[in-house]
Amino acid sequence: MSLAPGLGNTLSSWLIAFPALFSIINPLGASLIFAQATEGRDRREVVELARQVALNSLGIMLVSIWFGSWILGFFGISINALRITGGLVVASRAWLMLLQPETSEARKEKQALQGGRTVTTPDLRETAFFPLAMPFTVGPGSISVAIALSSSTPPNMPTADYYAGVSAAATTMAVVVAVVYAYAERVVAMLGVTGTRIVSRLAALILLAIGVQIMASGAEGFLVEALKQAKAA
């Protein structure tokens, strides 16, 4: 039984967007640090914090998806330039994650723990937006991916269907963040440090391929525009 065209397009765009967002956010790797940031806290407080961080992260992703391209377009930045730049940022970030996962972990730990102040905050919910949602969960790399995805509508696919799928992917990602963060201690115990780094490296490899693909689509767009101009001349 075939899917309706609109639902099929939405599912296709979801399959494009979700692996990219999952790879750059890497909730399994981030759960190691989230568990440190909430160590010794009441179980109910940790679950509520995970939910708020996920909602804040979703808001950041949706704003980037819906308005990122428009904002950049306001400054005269073309879609193809955005794709190449966004792909370059994503690929360079993935390369660092692939070769030096310990460096990425140390940077995220510094963002989340803020020199120990996160752990000693009287009300942990005060950290739900900064630093735990931004930049720890959704940082510049994640925002770049979201904007790049929003500008990468495949040919012959209605824009509404594509944006619906990408927004659904961001929503799914937020649900994953909420669940993984809420059970961060169990995730850490199950995977361990080594297992988490293996997952992080696999995610980095996928992300590197996605970054290269985004850059290639931007370069192809520039080439097509150049050929059209040459033909018109």
Automatic annotation (TrEMBL):
Membrane-protein topology: Multi-pass membrane protein
One Pfam family, short name: MarC
InterPro entries in the cross-refs: Multi_antbiot-R_MarC (IPR002771)
Chief localisation class: membrane
Alphabetized UniProt keyword annotations: Cell membrane, Membrane, Transmembrane, Transmembrane helix
Subcellular location: Cell membrane
Domain of life: Bacteria
Spans traversing the lipid bilayer: 12-34, 55-79, 128-150, 162-184, 204-224
UniProt record similarity statement: Belongs to the UPF0056 (MarC) family.
NCBIfam families associated with the record: NAAT family transporter
Protein name, as recorded: UPF0056 membrane protein
